[in-house]
Design brief:
heterodimer; A: alpha+beta; 4-stranded antiparallel β-sheet; 52% helix; 20% strand; B: 0% strand
């Protein structure tokens, strides 16, 4: 019965999206929900497996990490493994709570910025100021990295060179 | 009572009650009951398999495959938008056109399938027009049950009756379609009166549907053309199956396999959409009822029916028509009809009369009865579920106030038809 309702809903959404100009392709897939409990610290992910051999992974806890696409299930498992071991290390740190809070704030700030950009016409000077502040924040991260002890060596950081 | 008789009746009664209670999924209950018949040696495994009507199962699977491919073409979205535009956005005209599409589709496809295809597109149109979808949903649900009554393949009770008794597609069309057309028209007139307050739209509401583009609704024109050819062959096959000496399932499975062959779609995707729970439910029911037949319960009930009606065909057809419509309004009509079929067959043997009229009475009662309440037919339950997911509520009483009187009117018309034509 649930499948019937899902199919009916997909049909409805496809019709609306097509009327909006979209090209809609519906692919049968499985959604896997994975959760770990690291001594009370919850880490969870979702990933989608489909017959086109594309794997979409997203971390949802402790803070969301944007969707990434992979070629194989092994890559997905490897990324989860590394991500998890990083959190295992991170929870030993006394800064973990503060780190999670900052990550969540960053996520929230990003969405506020998006709204600001999409809903308002911003003065050029303000845009420049925000850009400069982000650049400064970015430099701060690079600077702090140089003076902090590295604790994870499973792989090289993707963004922090 | 012998042990087997007692066990069979107990298993059947408990299974039936559990199915009706809807506390556990009906397929699980029916399968468990069927297997218990084997465990308690009421019947052997070979006998049990022999009771499964492969024609009904094959017909259902064949039509499910055809629909699974056909719905990918976007034909229902196209038809709904096109109808709304032909109607110039007039809600009543849209309702009338969608009702005709629903009834015809339901005569050629299963009711549940029709509802699953027509309600979502209706909701998109009513949402675009910002009008209440409930009059549309109620009308389409009623019309799907009415339309499904017209043919052998339109409603599961008809599939079971046709298969068990050997009535052909054309037998159903010539005997039931004429009265179904009349019932459709009468129902539509009454529904127009009931929903007249909801059938208004401003110019901007009409414009919103006129701005929709039906041409982009078709996903795959090639697949649609192939589907049209397959449907034409399949429907022609149904019309000629008795003459050609084929079972209806052979026709449906030929159409299904041909469409799979020429569609170039992944067969796994297609077969995944077969409603296996429904197929297993039917198979289990056939075993359960078969076990009752084997132990003599059906024969006993048939003799009681002969006693009650004094073997009079006229009285029996009235009892069956009204009895099955009331039963189907509140209970699942599939197990009901599955039980009635061998009972009527025994009735025919015991009275030694031609009981063809009883089959039409059963088909009319069981199919039209489904309109009586929200739980009367699977199509009604599905329609209400889709609407609920859309944020609207179709309550039991809201449906009952419209559905039950219409069901009584339909059955009374059917009664007059049966009396005038057959008795």
């Amino acid at each position: 019965m649930r499948n019937k309702y899902i199919n009916a809903e997909i049909m409805q959404q496809s019709m609306k999206l097509k009327q909006m100009g979209a090209d809609v392709t519906v692919i049968n897939s499985k959604l896997c929900y994975i959760s770990f409990d690291l001594s009370g610290f919850k880490v969870s992910y979702v990933y989608n497996v489909n017959k086109k051999n594309r794997y979409f992974l997203e971390r949802i806890k402790p803070y969301p990490l944007p969707l990434r696409e992979f070629d194989s299930e092994d890559d997905v498992i490897e990324i989860i493994d590394i991500d998890l071991s990083q959190f295992k290390n991170a929870i030993k740190s006394h800064n973990i709570e503060e780190f999670i809070n900052i990550a969540r704030k960053l996520d929230s700030v990003f969405h506020k910025f998006e709204d600001l950009f999409l809903y308002y016409n911003l003065p050029e000077a303000e845009v420049k100021r925000l850009s400069d502040e982000i650049l400064e924040f970015d430099r701060d991260i690079d600077r702090i990295k140089e003076t902090s002890e590295r604790i994870c060596f499973d792989k090289e950081p993707e963004y922090l060179k | 009572m012998s042990d087997h008789l007692l066990i069979a009746v107990s298993i059947f009664t408990i299974t039936y009650m559990l199915i009706m209670s809807e506390k556990i999924h009906r397929t699980v209950v029916a399968l468990f009951g069927a297997v218990l018949m084997l465990v308690f040696s009421v019947e052997g495994q070979e006998e049990a398999v022999h009771h499964i009507d492969t024609n009904t199962i094959g017909l259902l699977i064949g039509m499910m495959i055809i629909v699974s491919i056909l719905k990918r073409t976007g034909i229902f979205e196209y038809l709904a938008i096109r109808s709304a535009k032909i109607a110039n956005g007039d809600p009543w005209k849209i309702l009338m056109m969608l009702s005709i599409i629903t009834a015809i589709s339901s005569a050629l496809l299963d009711n549940v399938t029709t509802i699953l295809l027509i309600i979502p597109v209706t909701l998109v149109i009513t949402e675009a027009m910002d009008i209440n979808p409930l009059p549309f949903v109620i009308t389409e649900t009623i019309m799907s049950n009415v339309g499904g009554t017209a043919t052998l393949i339109g409603d599961p009770p008809n599939i079971m009756i046709g298969s068990a008794v050997g009535l052909s597609f054309m037998d159903f069309v010539t005997n039931l379609a004429p009265i179904v057309v009349i019932i459709f028209i009468v129902n539509l007139i009454i529904l127009k009166f009931i929903f007249k307050q909801s059938m208004h739209a401003t110019e901007s509401q009409k414009l919103s549907v006129m701005n929709m583009d039906e041409s982009i609704a078709i996903n795959d024109k090639n697949l649609l053309i192939k589907g049209g050819i397959v449907m034409a062959i399949t429907v022609s096959g149904f019309m000629l199956h008795a003459t050609l000496g084929y079972e209806s399932a052979t026709v449906a499975l030929f159409g299904a396999s041909l469409y799979m062959l020429i569609s170039n779609l992944d067969p796994e995707d297609i077969l995944l959409e077969i409603e296996w729970t429904t197929i297993f439910f039917f198979a289990a029911l056939f075993i359960l009822v078969g076990a009752l037949e084997d132990v003599g319960v059906i024969e006993f009930l048939a003799s009681k029916m002969v006693e009650f009606t004094k073997g009079d065909i006229g009285t029996s057809s009235v009892v069956i028509l009204f009895g099955s419509s009331i039963a189907s309004a509140f209970l699942d009509n599939i197990p009901f009809v599955a039980t009635m079929i061998p009972l009527l067959q025994d009735f025919g043997i015991q009275t030694g009369q031609d009981i063809t009229v009883l089959w039409w009475s059963l088909a009319l009662g069981a199919c039209l009865g489904g309109n009586g309440t929200l739980v009367g037919a699977s199509a009604n339950v599905i329609a209400s579920g889709i609407v609920e997911k859309h944020g609207k509520k179709l309550s039991f009483m809201e449906y009952f106030k419209v559905g039950f009187p219409l069901m009584l009117v339909s059955v009374c018309i059917a009664y007059v038809y049966v009396v005038v034509r057959y008795l």
